Amino acid sequence: MSSGSSAKGSIEGTTKVVAVLGDPVDHSLSPRMHNAAFKELGLDYVYVAFNPSKRTIGEAVRAVKHLNLAGLNVTVPYKQDVIRHVDRLTPAAKAIGAVNTIYADGRKLIGNNTDAPGFTAALTAAGCRPRNKRVLVIGAGGAARAVIHALVEARASDIVIANRTLRKAVRTAKDFGGARAHIHAADLEILDDFDFLDSRQLVVNTTSVGLKGGAFLDYDIKSTPEDCVHFDLAYGEKPTAFLDLAAKAKRPTIDGRHMLVHQGALAFKLFTGRRAPIEVMSKAIGL
Question: Measured between alpha carbons, how far is 124 from 282 in angstroms, rounded to an integer?
């Protein structure tokens, strides 16, 4: 991969474009993180953010081929919507049932998922190993599916999915093996169940509740053990409502930016063929 002019701060006709698709997407730190990495390695790439609608998401995905983009990242709420617009899923994306990274292989669009290994890497870096842990996952969307896949692979002992719509939580649990894999569904009332919360060792928020301000859900966090780790996949310029709640309760926390870096580093390799400069990416987003 040759060095290009974009590494010096300019964008030329040779510059390859990578984008993130989401709604909302203006808060995304992915452009800042990836552009810092491109600059560090002298790559003629630029990373931007696009905000397609539900109606136009298919056209946005097909733009990878039509506009010769280097690739796409996909965030909320499109990680499941984009599946039918790619030509092939990697085994990981197929198992998870969600896509966060899209790139071309010849004339074929490949849907991949780097969220699951990114989540595991962020946990490991924080000194938290999910093996044999009892976990609560809040939410049942595309991000939750990646987390559950990672937890199953890491052999967590018990996983409970709590979601506003119980039916969706039940369906997600069944998709990953249900009771046979020690995965169970619950509604959000479980967030106020002392006996249940007292058994948890890791709580993962995969929703965007409280991201734009306001309070988190009605959650009796003080019923969790004092060493119960709280991981929020969402992130912002300041701590999310979920992490603020955890910090005030003196529970250990993991900021979503850590997962952003690790999943982004894997996507970076797919887009460029180069190993990502993780320290540079981390520093670019304030870690």
Answer: 16
